[in-house]
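Hypothesis: this fold can be encoded by more than one sequence.
Test: take the structure tokens below, design a sequence, compare later.
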């Protein structure tokens, strides 16, 4: 097969068309054909040049004839002007006195000049430059030359006649875009001795011949010029050859055009087809001669081709084999019967980095190793004559890197009869490394390098099969990072990834070699601690983990603090299978997070029941929103200066169908955790605004806003929508916010508060004094008032310490121009003490308990009486 390909390649390379004799003949014939082609090309170009010259000469001749015609026309016009101007009767009837009967009625100077000579304008100009007589297109007219033609050639004519008063002068004008000839002469007595001249300047006689389209055509046809006309934009688009003659007139310039005789075209129509036919006939004859000569040359080259065929086929085969060998990604080898390298392809140093001469004569078994079987035994197996393969053999590159290859080998016999081996080595290092990488990633987390859920489950099931005991249990710890989400939000996911990486390193450092830490996903980790000596060891481990995680993290020039919560389940005490252990540790983890974070909780059986109860409560809460089981009650706020109720606080109650009346502290935390606080807050906000607008005219209403709502977008829009829907004046709405609402993201909370203030609503600090109260808090956030927590009011007026605290808080609020509302006022003594401290408002059971809207309206009416 390869020999046949080599012969085919050589036949193409040494075909007769490329042989020496054929090449010489072909080049000679091509040269002759090129000369003939050049000759015909020159002849055609010469013919085109001759035709062009003929056309140019004909055009120049027609231009000369046209100029001659115009000159003759001017000469005739001047002759007529001379004859009429040098006539004694003209002098008597036109200059001395104007006799229109002689000039017009007797047709001495009337319509006959237009009818006979086509003179469109006849003017007699008096000595003072006034137009005494005029005839326009054969009709008597009272127009001046300027009025009719738009020209004022008087000065030019006077100057020309002054040089030779006895001879008429002529001018070329443009009248209405058409050329016109004007001849002028002084009116004199001529040779008439009977007429006596009078003193003073003479009058002037003008004849004007306007060359209109028809007159131009007739003028041109007299001299063999066809279609003479004035050039226009449309005439320039004509599809035939035209000749143009520019005319410089007295007041403008025009271009005359006419159809060229184009005598060269006739010459081309006859000669050019004839020359093209002769050139094609010559080309066909030359092609026939060339083919005949080439056929004879091929017969001469065929003998040379047959002699060279065998040698060229062999050379082409060797080149093809060498090119294929060097182009492949494999390297080819040959060994002797002792398995020593005798030949290596040029790809060997490219792939391995080793020099060829460094390994020739050395055994292949020193270079390549195989785990499945010894390479020497595999090659020397008796009875093997076909190709064999061996995968994933190892060798080291010149740089010392371990690489992998697949071997293919076949025993063969040399011409001398000796046994040898030859084959290929295919580098598969990337494939093996990719497989190892896939295997690694299937059991490890790519970000932290920790085992993933699959590896964790395998490890856990293996440890559980060893049957841990109550004396030496196995601990499953579910760990969740606290305050990790703000890291992603504030510093970006890159910083979050770095936090997870560093935390994974700290967790590894806390464990023994027999323990395992795996990443569950997100910021959750699983720790498996087998063979525990005593339960206290788990406590010590959790303490160490919390301590290590709470150490500051330095990322992107920021100091970051996070915490961790852990849930612990033990085997066999709590469960003996992996699924239950993971579920129980998750339940314990939830309990630890609910208990305040940065701690750990061991699983107990009652926790699962609490989880079920919580899920039932969450389900009931969702149903309560749909079925409108919530109600609002209102507690008045009493203005101590005005002595009346000026505002109410909306308080939420849940009328549970099974558990009865529930207070906010029994379901609000669950609503915040599940995200139901947003629709619940919207219902409270819309209901309170609607009640204030329709049932409590002129009275303000305050609504409590959860701190969770400051961590979500859209609070300002929701308040705006509630005000718009209820049509409540924003000044009558107050939002009560706890101090903790601003701790999560102060900058974002400040932006939200500024947006609420822009709506016109009031902001009150609820439960002031129980959180993180500070002067900077009051100074930086746009609050309108403070609600003093009832825990401070309860000790009044009998506790001096309580009195001092309340007085100082009221004074602090006054210093910041804030209104002060005291909560939990239950006795007249407390009310009087607050009045002494100049407290603005009071709220509590002394004034009124929280009550439904209908009862509140009646209570307010009684208080007003």
């Amino acid at each position: 097969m390869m020999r046949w390909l080599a012969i085919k390649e050589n036949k193409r390379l040494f075909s007769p068309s490329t042989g020496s004799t054929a090449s010489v003949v072909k080049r000679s014939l091509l040269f002759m054909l090129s000369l003939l082609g050049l000759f015909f090309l020159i002849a055609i170009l010469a013919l085109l040049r001759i035709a062009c010259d003929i056309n140019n000469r004909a055009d120049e001749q027609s231009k000369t004839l046209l100029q001659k015609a115009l000159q003759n026309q001017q000469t005739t016009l001047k002759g007529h002007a001379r004859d009429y101007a040098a006539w004694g009767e003209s002098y008597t009837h036109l200059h001395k006195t104007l006799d229109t009967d002689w000039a017009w009625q007797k047709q001495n100077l009337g319509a006959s000049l237009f009818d006979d000579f086509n003179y469109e304008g006849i003017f007699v100009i008096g000595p003072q430059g006034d137009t005494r007589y005029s005839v326009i297109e054969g009709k008597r007219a009272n127009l001046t030359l300027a009025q009719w033609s738009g020209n004022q050639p008087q000065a030019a004519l006077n100057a020309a006649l002054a040089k030779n008063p006895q001879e008429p002068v002529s001018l070329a004008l443009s009248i209405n875009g058409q050329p016109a000839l004007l001849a002028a002469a002084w009116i004199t007595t001529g040779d008439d001795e009977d007429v006596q001249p009078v003193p003073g300047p003479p009058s002037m006689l003008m004849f004007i011949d306007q060359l209109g389209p028809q007159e131009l055509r007739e003028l041109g046809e007299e001299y063999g010029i066809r279609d003479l006309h004035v050039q226009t934009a449309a005439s320039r688009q004509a599809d035939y050859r035209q000749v143009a003659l520019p005319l410089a007139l007295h007041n403008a310039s025009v271009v005359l055009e006419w159809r060229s005789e184009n005598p060269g075209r006739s010459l081309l129509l006859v000669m050019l087809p004839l020359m093209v036919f002769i050139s094609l006939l010559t080309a066909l004859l030359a092609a026939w001669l060339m083919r005949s000569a080439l056929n004879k040359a091929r017969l001469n080259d065929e003998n040379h081709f047959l002699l060279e065929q065998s040698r060229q086929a062999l050379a082409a085969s060797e080149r093809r084999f060498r090119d294929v060998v060097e182009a492949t990604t494999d390297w080819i080898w040959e060994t002797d019967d002792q398995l020593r390298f005798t030949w290596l392809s040029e790809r060997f140093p490219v792939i391995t980095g080793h020099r060829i001469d460094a390994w020739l004569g050395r055994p292949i078994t020193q270079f390549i190793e195989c785990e499945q079987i010894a390479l020497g035994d595999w090659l020397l197996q008796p009875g093997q004559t076909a190709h064999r393969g061996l995968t994933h053999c190892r060798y080291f590159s010149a740089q010392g890197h371990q690489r992998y290859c697949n071997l293919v080998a076949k025993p063969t016999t040399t011409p001398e009869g000796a046994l040898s081996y030859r084959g290929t080595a295919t580098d598969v290092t990337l494939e093996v490394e990719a497989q190892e990488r896939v295997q690694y990633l299937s059991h490890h987390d790519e970000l932290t390098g920790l085992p993933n859920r699959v590896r964790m489950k395998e490890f856990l099931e293996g440890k559980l099969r060893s049957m841990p005991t109550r004396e030496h249990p196995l601990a499953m710890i579910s760990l969740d990072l606290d305050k990790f989400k703000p890291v992603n939000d504030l510093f970006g996911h890159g910083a979050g990834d770095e936090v997870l990486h560093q935390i994974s390193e700290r967790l590894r450092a806390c464990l023994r070699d027999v323990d395992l830490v795996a990443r569950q996903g997100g910021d959750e980790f699983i720790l498996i601690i087998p063979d525990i000596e005593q339960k206290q060891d788990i406590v010590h481990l959790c303490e160490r983990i919390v301590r290590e995680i709470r150490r500051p993290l330095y990322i992107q020039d920021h100091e970051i603090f996070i915490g961790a919560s852990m849930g612990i389940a033990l085997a066999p005490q709590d469960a003996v299978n992996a699924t239950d252990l993971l579920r129980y540790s998750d339940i314990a983890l939830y309990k630890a997070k609910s208990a305040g974070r940065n701690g750990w909780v061991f699983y107990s059986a009652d926790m699962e029941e609490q989880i079920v109860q919580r899920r039932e409560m969450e389900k009931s809460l969702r149903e309560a929103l749909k079925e409108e089981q919530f109600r609002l009650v209102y507690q008045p706020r009493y203005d101590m200066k005005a002595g009346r109720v000026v505002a109410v606080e909306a308080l939420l109650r849940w009328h549970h169908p099974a558990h009865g009346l529930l207070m906010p502290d029994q379901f609000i935390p669950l609503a915040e955790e599940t995200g139901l606080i947003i629709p619940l807050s919207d219902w409270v906000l819309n209901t309170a605004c609607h009640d204030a607008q329709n049932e409590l005219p002129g009275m303000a209403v305050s609504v409590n806003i959860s701190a969770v709502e400051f961590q979500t977008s859209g609070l300002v829009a929701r308040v705006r929508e509630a005000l718009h829907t209820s049509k409540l004046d924003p000044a009558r709405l107050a939002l009560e916010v706890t101090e903790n609402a601003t701790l999560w993201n102060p900058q974002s909370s400040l932006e939200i508060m500024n947006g609420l203030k822009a709506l016109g609503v009031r902001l009150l600090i609820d439960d002031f004094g129980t959180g993180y109260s500070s002067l900077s808090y009051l100074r930086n956030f746009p609050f309108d008032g403070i609600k003093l927590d009832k825990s401070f009011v309860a000790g009044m007026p009998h506790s001096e310490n309580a009195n001092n605290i309340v007085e100082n808080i009221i004074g602090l609020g006054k210093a910041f121009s804030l209104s002060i509302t005291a909560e939990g006022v239950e006795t007249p003594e407390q009310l009087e003490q607050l009045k002494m401290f100049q407290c603005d408002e009071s709220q509590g059971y002394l004034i009124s308990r929280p009550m439904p809207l209908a009862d509140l309206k009646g209570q307010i009416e009684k208080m007003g009486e």
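The CA atoms of residues 574 and 580 lie 8 Å apart. The chain has 27 helices and 30 strands.
Hypothesis status: open.
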